[in-house]
Amino acid sequence: MLILEKLASFDLENLTEISRSTGLISKVIEFTSNRTNMTNINETHQKLLKSSSLKLLRKLVNTEGKLGVILRQKISEHPFLLSNLAEILDDDGSSQELIELTAEIIRDIAMDANRREEIGKIRVIISRLMQTFLSRDAASSTDSDHFLREIVGQALAVLAIESANNCLIMLAEPEYLFIKELTFMIHGDRCRYVAASLLRSLCLHARPELNHSELKDISYILREVLEEIMDAEGAELEVLVGLSSQICNVIPEEFVRELQDGLIMERFVKKLVDALNANMMPTGYCPGIRRAIIEHAIYMMEYSPSYASYFNKCWMMETLLMVERTPSRAENYRFFLGDAGVMEHNIPISSLVARAKELMGHE
After folding, report:
1. pLDDT tier at 242 (50, 70, 90 boundaries)?
2. Quick one: which H or E segment has residue 336?
3. Does residue 262 or residue 115 have the better pLDDT?
4. What residues does each domain of the chain span?
5. What is the pTM of this model?
6. Contact 173, 126 (CB under 8 A)
7. How far apart are CA 74 and CA 53, in angstroms?
8. If you count Cβ atoms within 10 Å of the first and of the last residue's Cβ in the chain, which end, N or C, has fewer?
9. pLDDT (tens digit, 9 = 90+) per residue, 50-72?
10. Which of 143, 161, 203 is closest to 178 using CA atoms?
């Protein structure tokens, strides 16, 4: 296993050979379970074998390009993979390293929509991921603890994307007030951008289930989110704008009041338009930033047509025409692993541009 792990890290040809080898991936997955048939090794070596197997699987599912797509599909379709990963998460004796490796594997295979739903049905996976993500002790936490929480949070965030079922499962977890926990993290936790991504998905997919107290918790972070948008760039800006747009969609009255009371309406609209102009060439680092900004503008103008005048003053129509003239295939995807886009959007950006232009024409 150690040799295979080193070979997998060396070049793509080795990864290709591993993917072609009959029965090899099945055997590696078998080693991740406590219930192997191997009786000739002691407990210490058993743990090392499990760790090496998980490291190899992590490398395989994190492979970039078209080969990565093939490997993730092949691995995620194995009938015992998810039960083995659930077993590791549910074992109180699992080390931090094993939990981290397991979360990375879950994060990467969950980029497939069908696999996301399958993972959600194994309730212990989401429950244990939430337990790790929300457990924090500022007095004793280390950099490795923060890194583990970041990885686990990323796994949860991917599981929540375009999955109402998984969002509802997270909200229903009895040990936590998940919305309150996430808003608390956005106030300054090192995992605040992961928390913002999760909260965006919950607002989008679980909106009818949010109670009065949860909506209040969301309203309490609105000013902070708006202020951070003013200074953010790149991927952080994409995440924050995505969250802000969903807050606008869920509690539009509070959103309008915050913009007006804070006297930042014109400045906020200008920031959105300036950011749209600054990101006319989408990158693999943040491919959805133009989409997020246009969606936000749509939510604002659908709630109050008067917003169209603010956008027109900032030359939004001209900017939309530029977006229309510079379509990018990259914007069809949420993430990139190398040159391979994963998690394709349902609505093309051209449709969003057309809707925004229609709303601005109704000023």
Report:
1. very high
2. strand 333-337
3. 115
4. 222-363
5. 0.93
6. yes
7. 16
8. C
9. 999 999 999 999 998 888 889 99
10. 203
